Amino acid sequence: MSDTMESLRRKISSAGDLRSVVRTMKALAASNIQQYEKSVLALADYYRSVELGLGACFRAYEPVATMVRRKASTHAVTVRAIVFGSDQGLVGQFNDVVADYAIKTLAALPGKCHVWAVGERVHARLADAGVPPVGLFTVPNSVQAITPLVGQIQIEVEAHWDKGENAPLWVFHNQPLAGALYEPVSQRLLPLDAQWQQGLAKIHWPTANLPEVMGRGIVTMRALIREYLFISLFRACAESLASENASRLAAMQRADKNINDLLEQLNGTFHQLRQSGIDEELFDVVSGFEALSSGVR
Length: 297
What we know:
64% of the residues lie in helices and 11% in strands. It contains 7 helices and 5 strands. It has helices at residues 5-60, 64-71, 94-107, 120-128, 146-159, 194-201, 217-296, and strands at 79-84, 113-118, 135-137, 169-177, 181-190. A 5-stranded mixed sheet has the order 3-2-1-4-5, with helices on both faces. α1 (5-60) crosses α6 (194-201), α1 runs antiparallel to α7 and α3 (94-107) crosses α4 (120-128).
């Protein structure tokens, strides 16, 4: 059944409204990307301060990796992992990409795994793949909500940690790339890498006065390690959110292009139908004039 001019007007109006919504979502996604990327850049100075503090501790005390190995139990360790995903849709393969990457990486590690999912969609993806998470966190909807989430993650993970256990802690998330793209990445946060510790111990102190660890040095070192974990989790969450919005932006750009193509097609059909109607009316007028002229003669 062919479209009428009235039905085409309704379709054009609906497509125009939908295009307005898509363009609003595009602007919102672009704005969100900027705020999350700025939050990562804002961590640089604080992370530098934590690095300097850890470097001073590593120069004064035995490397943490050595101390932990002395306390490690003989039974197989449990790998802890945190996977950042999304709670909302319109993100394409965002959750599938990070979930598949995490599943493949964890499958190559020895021992059993305890996984925490950030986001209902990645939680469902992991569960369907046979890696049911032991915990679920809600994805933050702003930069201000990242800090409380990271605090919850640290408390939850520490509650499942056996005292003295040398268990690995991994984090998986999508990292933004140029051009509204992203890639899955991972980082082993614990145990602390020995080479990384040695590198921090060699960091040049910015002043002529050499640092001194006050009070109980081990307590200070553990506090700085907690701050290092906080920064690492905060960065992972912010980069994941930036990637999520980049994926949503790409989806909205595709939707905007499809809507523009649809509007062009609908407008072309509408103008063609309108022109046909005008031609028919003109033909009726000419036919009527010729009939009247014939009757007068």
